[in-house]
Amino acid sequence: MLDVRRLRLLRDLAHLGTIAAVAEAHTYTPSAVSQQLAALQREAGVRLLERAGRRVALTPAGAALVRHTEVVLAALEAADATLAGARAGLSGSVRIGAFPSAVRTLLPPALVALARDHPALDLMVTELDPVDVPAALRDRRLDVALLHDYDTVPVEPDRALDSTPLLDETVYLAVAAGTDPAADPIEGARHANWIVGSPGTLCHAVARHACQLAGYQPTVRHQADDFTAALALVAAGQGVALVPQLAVNQPPPGVRLLPLAIRRRTRVAYRKGAASHPAVAACVAALHATAAAFPGDDPPGRHDEPPPGGPPSAA
Asked: What InterPro entries does the database record attribute to this sequence (predicted)?
């Protein structure tokens, strides 16, 4: 019988790419991970890994086993959900992950509702970038998390996770007050300095992609992962920035918001098989109720009418 803990290590190697990364994720030593994978290979009776330069790669048999592992782990999650549903009452710890703008807006009302309706739940929130969400869910550091992508820069779904749509937002180009809006705001910012997220973040990728679609590379002057900081820099005349609707409820004075056709799409994610877990289902329901009360495509604060050609299109 194959050991589930060792199968999880093999699955994580497929996602993370190196034994060192798997060791760090599980707080093991690389040597311990290598020994466990070697033991799994002996159990399997076929070669699962092979050298690829200084790294290891999965053989076709190893890749096939990972696909089966995803099914096994999802079945275990579903079994746990069934047992949780058979218990009286809703209790236990629920670890929720969300990106900063959601922590400030969507999450607090949902937490209030959950505490009111399910007082025995122990709710713990972690703020993190969406790119870190899949690994945190796979590693069981989170149970429910918000992640997002943009319609112009879609993210490939993680096979270990399921998710449900939560919210679509307008994305704005934040410019200094007094800036004359162009028919195409991104084209109009061709010669502007840009404020973008750190490399590796979706915010960084979507800003660069938007400029590339307009036929130029942005001149990046500042990097800021916090939208409040980015808006403050815009207000100080330091450049322009892309900001989603959740981040612009109260923009600072001196900022003008130009709506774009770009949409940011937020989803609630959890491990495959966990959708029917009562605590997960309660979190998803509370988040959907909060999102349903979101004001839509006309946030409070300073913003402008859509540029000529009509309002931004929906994803």
From this structure: LysR_HTH_N, LysR_subst-bd, WH-like_DNA-bd_sf, WH_DNA-bd_sf
